[in-house]
């Protein structure tokens, strides 16, 4: 039986500050399901109860997000909020472990495909999909009420936004990244440890290696996610003294490892020292952005779009196909993916003017 239908006979540990309102329940089936994890002394029955009450946001559900969501769902984190703006493609399947060929053929939004897959192996937890781009306007709505945020993003702009929100609201989050054979992660406990802006006051400048340019080993992804998921388990079960207080990076191909202390916030830090949350204010967040190789995202129009209706309108102009979540329109040499909230990803150009004009011509300005 799914916990989605409502609360079952939930035993909320009164000592736990993690007790949520809609957490999954600890019932006899759970005893069996989590038995090997409960046997581990660091977790135990009390730790498992806390996990089942935990509310965790996975910000971005690509490669690291998939691995993080999968580990936490299997471990019994009661509510997982999956936030992702993108849809599944064949090139994702090498490392994005929650998706399959069917999801790619359907171009399903990653958040939807992820929630379905999570439910298929743990129907006792709640997996909440949000097909959304995390932005200053919606960060409060998407991350509010969570106990922890896990970084499944692929860019520093969104990470600084998460960091500003988390520091301002004393919400723990875990920075995770992987590129090539390199993995890096850091726990951020606002007010206690360094934040992302303490360690990296400015985002990387110049050419930054990404999965699109440097490639990526799936093992580096899963390694980074495993480190972070373990820290999440410590945090959610109350094992505070065990939480790692360093920025840890490893290159799995070159056999290199480095650790930098992140034990204390930096007094002059913009975010946790001066409490200047520029990224929450949305400065420098254009509504039209490059998004991966050879594609542009447009989200300047917030208008609900009826995908069946739009599909009929676009029929005479190219090939078009849609399902409940997404519409695809091919107009050589471009491919437009349209979401019900009016957001679009246009492939085949890096020119924002070209993308905007295509959008205006076919969807409306
Ligand atoms: Zn800081």
Quaternary structure of the protein: single chain
Q: What's the arrangement of strands in the largest beta sheet?
A: 3-2-1-4-5-6-7-8
Instruction: Specify the number of helices.
Output: 13
The end-to-end distance, rounded to whole angstroms, is 46 Å
Q: Would you give an account of this structure?
A:
- Helices cover 32% and strands 20% of the residues.
- It is an alpha/beta fold and 365 residues long.
- A hairpin with a 4-residue loop joins strand 9 and strand 10 (295-298).
- Helix 4 packs across helix 11 (218-237).
- It contains 13 helices and 14 strands.
- The structure holds zinc ion.
Question: Characteristics of this structure?
Answer:
alpha/beta; 365 residues; 6-stranded antiparallel β-sheet; globular; disordered N terminus; binds zinc ion
Outline the secondary-structure elements.
Blueprint: H1 28-33, H2 35-39, H3 44-52, E1 55-59, H4 63-75, E2 79-84, H5 101-105, H6 110-121, E3 126-131, H7 139-143, E4 148-151, H8 156-168, E5 173-179, E6 182-188, H9 196-199, H10 211-214, H11 218-237, E7 246-251, E8 256-261, E9 288-290, E10 295-298, H12 307-314, E11 319-322, E12 327-331, E13 334-338, E14 344-347, H13 352-362
Helix pairs in contact: 4-11
The structure holds zinc ion.
Zinc ion (ZN) binds at residues 194-195, 197-198, 265-266, 269, 271-272.
């Amino acid at each position: 039986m799914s916990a989605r239908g409502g609360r079952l006979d939930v035993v909320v540990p009164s000592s736990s500050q993690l007790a949520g309102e809609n957490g999954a329940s600890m019932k006899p089936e759970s005893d069996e399901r989590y038995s090997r994890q409960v046997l581990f002394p660091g977790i135990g029955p009390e730790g498992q109860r806390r996990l089942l009450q935990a509310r965790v946001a996975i910000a971005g559900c690509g490669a690291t997000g998939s691995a993080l969501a999968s580990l936490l769902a299997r471990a019994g984190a009661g509510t997982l909020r999956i936030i992702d703006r993108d849809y599944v493609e064949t090139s994702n399947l090498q490392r994005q472990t929650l998706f399959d060929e069917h999801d790619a053929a359907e171009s399903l939004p990653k958040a939807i495909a992820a929630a379905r897959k999570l439910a298929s192996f743990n129907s006792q937890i709640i997996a909440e999909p949000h097909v959304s781009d995390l932005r200053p306007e919606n960060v409060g709505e998407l991350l509010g009420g969570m106990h922890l945020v896990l970084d499944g993003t692929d860019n520093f702009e969104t990470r600084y936004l998460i960091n500003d929100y988390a520091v301002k609201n004393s919400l723990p989050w875990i920075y995770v990244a992987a590129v090539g054979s390199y993995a890096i992660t850091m726990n951020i406990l606002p007010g206690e440890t360094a934040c992302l802006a303490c360690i990296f006051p400015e985002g990387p400048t110049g050419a930054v290696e990404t999965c699109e340019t440097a490639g990526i080993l799936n093992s580096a992804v899963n390694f980074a996610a495993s480190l972070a998921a373990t820290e999440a388990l410590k945090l959610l079960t109350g094992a505070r003294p065990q939480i790692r207080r360093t920025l840890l990076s490893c290159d799995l191909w070159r056999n290199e490892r480095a650790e930098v202390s992140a034990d204390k916030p930096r007094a002059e830090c913009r975010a946790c020292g001066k409490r200047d949350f520029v990224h929450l204010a949305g400065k420098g967040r254009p509504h039209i952005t490059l998004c991966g190789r050879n594609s542009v995202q447009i989200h300047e129009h917030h208008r609900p779009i009826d995908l069946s209706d739009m599909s009929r309108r676009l029929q005479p102009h190219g090939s078009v196909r849609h399902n409940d979540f997404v519409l695809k329109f091919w107009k050589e040499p471009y491919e437009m993916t349209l979401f019900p909230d009016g957001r679009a990803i246009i492939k085949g150009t890096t020119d924002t003017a070209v993308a905007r004009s295509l959008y205006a011509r076919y969807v409306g300005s």
